[in-house]
Amino acid sequence: MIATVRTARRHYVLQAVGAILIAAPMALAGTRVVVDDLGFKTQVNDHIKRVVSLVPTNSEMVCLLDCARLIGGTRYDQFPAELRQRVQSKQIEIIGGGFDTNLERIVQLAPDLILTNGPTQQRIAAPLKNLGYSVVSVWPRDMARLKRDFLLLGELLAQEKKATSLIADMQHRFLAIQAKAMNKPRKKVYLQMWTDPLITVGKQSFPDWLVAAAGGAAVGIDEMDMADGGRSRRDQHLQRFAFRLGAGQFGISHPAESRSAYFFE
After folding, report:
1. Among 35, 135, 203, 251, which is most buried by a count of CB atoms within 10 Å?
2. Region 31-45: what's the mean pLDDT?
3. Domains in the chain, please, with CATH?
């Protein structure tokens, strides 16, 4: 009886250990395990040749390091110039706009690595992970995390020296911006990310940090309502001072179609 209990216990222990080993990603030969900005562990190939990006910021970072390896991006990919040229020449496949991603097209592209943004894109990331693709969320919210993410991409693409050089240049230019803003009154800034409904940036986001670091203070819709005495006053300000980013490039002609706008007070 005792021997039977011991055998059964050993069996259950082995089953539990096996389940843990299956659930936890393990670095196989020719791969590595990375932890992304959402805390997910993902197994990634050591030699990445085909990258798909689901947001323009990630497309830009990949292209700055090695644009030839970016095979899929969004319809909003514009910078740097090489990225725009490769999109126009059909060397980079457009797989959507961030929230209308074409999963079938991604599968057809057979990428080694797929780069997503934050929590809002996890509904896209989940099915791709279930299909066995390496999906990494790159979602920096301040300069320290941006540097970390850029260095990680540099490692994954075997472009560490280039990543380090670009970060040094970025820091140098940003310090100059901070120096100009030092000891000056902070300006209130409204960053509009969508028009219908009106959506602005949240606190603890990278745009919010960037505005603060450059000497501004990001304000939300409710703050504008209180400061200006109501919605109608706010809308008048938006109509007068909002300007569209890339409106001509995207074929946008009407203010209501604008995808991004900034409001300065």
Report:
1. 135
2. 96
3. 22-166 (3.40.50.1980), 187-264 (no CATH)
